[in-house]
Amino acid sequence: MELGSRLKEARQAKGLSQEEIESSTKIQQKYLQAMEENNFEFLPGKFYTRAFIREYASAVGLDPEEVMNEHENELPAVDERSAAVYPRSKKTEVRAAAGSGSSRSTSRILPAVITGVLVVLIAFIVYFFTQQITTTDETNPADEGPQDEVVISEDKNGKQDDKKASDDEASEASGDSENGSSGEDTGEPTAEVELEQEGSGDFPEHTYNVKGASDKKVKVELSGTAYLEAAASEDGEGLIDPIPYSEEESPLEIDVSGKDQLYLKTGNAAVTKVTVDGEQLEFPAEVSTQKLLINFN
């Protein structure tokens, strides 16, 4: 019996429709139909074919690993390493090309910047010495007379004024330091993330508890292509379209305001980064297809 026929027969034996399987697995009905017809070329890609089959087999009560082993020759081969690494290498090439163009632009602009700085510096030096000459002329009047008394009086007042100014500056500096230390924003994340349960098996599910998140949004960043699903709970409403997403569509922000849970699946954990309020939620297993159940407290 072919794999597609086996899946269809197991679904019918449990009295389930394709619509019910779509609701429980979040796999679109057109892909379920393609799998039952053994038309695996219609699926989003070879990399996701195996993940879809495991989900379908589990939903109709079959052992996913047994199904995969018995029908291995019917499945398209996929190299997970190349699927995760290729986008990063392309990204490196783009950055290298951008860096080369930036270096050429800098070499043209740098002489003009240096010339401008020198002009400003010369103007400042001329202005400084001009002010010094003017100040010296004003403090040495030509009229003779009781000049000593006037000079002594000015010196005393000057010393008192200088002392007062120094005290004021020290007081202001102390006040600024205290204000700075008391009002400084550390910029550290406010959310507390705890891995409550680490999943196992070929399609593991990991449970996280998140406390004190100031921003009820989950950010998903991709460094390659990954199939993603997100729902308010395991059987809840879908929050994004269950399709493959590329690096160009990253990051995705999922609004979970007013929700207690988020159920997130990825078909390529190696290129998927999930954060809540700046805190990262890791995929601890070594397999590509993984799930996260996030509880917000």
Automatic annotation (TrEMBL):
Coiled coil: none annotated. Gene3D superfamilies: lambda repressor-like DNA-binding domains. Residues 1-12, 153-167 have a biased composition (Basic and acidic residues). Residues 7-36 form the HTH cro/C1-type domain. Pfam families: HTH_25 (PF13413). Residues 1-21, 86-105, 137-209 are annotated as: Disordered. InterPro entries: Bact_Cytoskel_RodZ, Cro/C1-type_HTH, Lambda_DNA-bd_dom_sf. Keywords: Membrane, Transmembrane, Transmembrane helix. Residues 95-105, 172-184 have a biased composition (Low complexity). The chain crosses the membrane at residues 109-129. Residues 185-199 have a biased composition (Acidic residues). This is Helix-turn-helix domain-containing protein. The lineage of its organism: Bacteria, Bacillati, Bacillota, Bacilli, Bacillales.
